[in-house]
Amino acid sequence: QVQLVESGGGVVQPGGSLRLSCAASGFTFSSYGMHWVRQAPGKGLEWVAFIRYDGSNKYYADSVKGRFTISRDNSKNTLYLQMNSLRAEDTAVYYCAKDPRPYRVAAAGPLDYWGQGTLVTVSS
Amino acid sequence: DIQMTQSPSSLSASVGDRVTITCQASQDISNYLNWYQQKPGKAPKLLIYDASNLETGVPSRFSGSGSGTDFTFTISSLQPEDIATYYCQQYDNLPRGFTFGPGTKVDIK
Fold first, then answer.
1. Which residues in chain A have their CB less than 8 angstroms from residue B42's CB?
2. How many beta-carbon pairs below 8 A join chains A and B?
């Protein structure tokens, strides 16, 4: 069965950095695009970033462009989100999620499996 | 950018009631619209994809319809386990990503 397990969340000061990981299992990780989606406390869902199945294309929400970097290691079945220059408004639960269609090249479509999320708190 | 609105923002209904949520896009998105259910403290769960297709394993009391700018999500007979917040999500099939609606919180009366 598909499993996505995020880790790496925690408390960080404004301006600091954090790297999130998402360990994937139960499917051929290297065939599927992956997303990060976040949810601020008590708020709605916000798409953050997408990476193509082979890592060759990446897309970002305007709110994180230039500060966050999505990457993947297909040999380790792991997705990453490097977050730099963190701001208070980046405080959220961060979810990784899977595209159901293999080899899709665009940040499109539904998200059929989600991890349980990891909480990032940006505070001094 | 495409903006999504949902209505109502919250509703309260009785067990067995028919519940309808609407989602409107600021421009034509064809059928590129998905619906998710999120229970408190849990990750979202995909219910409906491409406006009207029921995800595998999702009960048939859930349905979706619409195209273009106006979409509808329906629970034909509300059950206690359906208490959750429901989000629509658009994707315009361009590379740059997608947006979620603000959500509709569903409670039992």
1. 116
2. 69
3-state secondary structure of A89: helix
What would the pLDDT profile of A3-37 be if each residue is shown by its tens digit? 999 999 999 999 999 999 999 999 999 999 999 99
**Distance, in angstroms, between B106 CA and closest chain A CA?**
14
Nearest CB neighbour to A59, from listed B32, B43, B96: B96
A3–chain B Cβ distance below 8 A for any pair: no
* B50-104 residue pLDDT tens: 999 999 999 999 999 999 999 999 999 999 999 999 999 999 857 677 899 999 9
